[in-house]
Design goal:
Rossmann fold; single chain; alpha/beta; about 325 residues
Length: about 325
């Protein structure tokens, strides 16, 4: 039974991550930073993070889509029980296959699942819905080529962090309401689910943490301006506004940071799923800012997130 107390007291950021996030903000929030420089800095910062145990075998692929081929990386444990398609975060403007790499090795190894990580086209060069449609096509491709990835007739799931969490929610709904692939599990990690939250009365976590490290209100507005062509597209891409029937969605794991401006969007999504009778697990990670997936070598709370993600993936894959 889903049970969650809607009131979360404000909390200070975990001291273990303060030094890193201050450096992150100093590098990524520099006025006038060009997009190529932002991508290079983001990749450099994430490359400093440590691995989470032994690596599994990987191979890089190219997947055809209606907007051109996209890079992908397949993580293959010794014995795979399912295939999980994953989409990275980065505000639709930064990030690549290396961004979630340490965590995906851990999930693949510890949960015993193959993971297909996607690198979609980025904004502002490619605005909505290019990334969404690329991931849609890649999901269809993965389902059609299961025998070359993890073997046919095994469970298929989907997951992503931040912008990738948004794509996860959109794709799960699309698959459930069309003849898309059958998805039996989804995991959303600090997802962005309502792009109008900054346009009017802000939800509580936006008011509390709009100036917090890793993802400020100003940064979010910049990402949205580069990704969306108009307000209609924002509504269409906001699962909290565009999903009419949550009961169609698969079993779900939602992970949010207590000190993240996007926190309450993830909570609202989990509450809506639970009300619709969907099995859902919601975890709020103490002292965590946005992008805590990249802080697992620094924080006990972030490492607990990985343990919870692995546990959820294992339970799904081996049931």
């Amino acid at each position: 039974m889903f049970d969650f107390k809607s009131e979360i007291a404000p909390r200070a950021v975990d001291p273990a991550i303060e030094r890193h996030i201050a450096r992150f903000d100093a590098l990524m929030a520099e006025p006038g930073l060009e997009i190529d420089d932002a991508r290079e800095r983001y990749a450099s910062l994430l490359a400093e993070r440590s691995a989470l145990g032994a690596a599994v075998a990987t191979r890089d692929l190219s997947i055809p889509t209606r907007h051109g081929a996209i890079p992908a990386r397949l993580y293959s444990p010794e014995d795979s029980a399912a295939l999980l398609v994953y989409m990275h975060g980065g505000g639709f403007a930064v990030g690549d296959l290396d961004s979630p790499d340490p965590v995906l090795h851990a999930v693949s190894r510890e949960a015993g699942v193959s993971v297909l990580s996607l690198s979609y086209a980025l904004a502002p060069e490619h605005m909505y819905p290019v990334a969404y449609e690329q991931c849609q096509d890649a999901l269809v491709w993965a389902n059609a080529h299961r025998e070359h990835l993890d073997g046919p007739r095994k469970p298929l799931g989907i997951a992503g962090d931040s912008a990738g969490g948004n794509l996860t929610a959109l794709l799960s709904h699309w698959a459930a309401t069309t003849d898309g692939p059958e998805l039996t599990w989804q995991a959303l990690i600090n997802p962005v689910l309502d792009f109008l939250a900054l346009d009017g009365a802000l939800v509580g976590s936006h008011r509390l943490y709009g100036q917090s490290p890793m993802l400020s209100t100003e940064t979010m507005r910049g990402f949205m301006a580069s990704y969306f062509p108009n307000r209609t597209a924002k509504i269409e891409a906001s699962p909290l506004r565009s999903i009419a029937d949550y009961s169609l969605l698969p079993t779900t794991f939602v992970a949010v940071g207590q000190c993240d401006a996007l926190r309450d969007e993830g909570i609202a999504y989990a509450v809506a799923l639970a009300a619709a009778g969907v099995p859902v697990s919601l975890e709020v990670y103490s002292g965590m800012t946005h992008n805590f997936l990249t802080l697992t070598d620094l924080s006990v709370s972030a490492r607990r997130f990985v343990e919870d993600l692995v546990r959820g993936a294992r339970r799904w894959a081996h049931r």
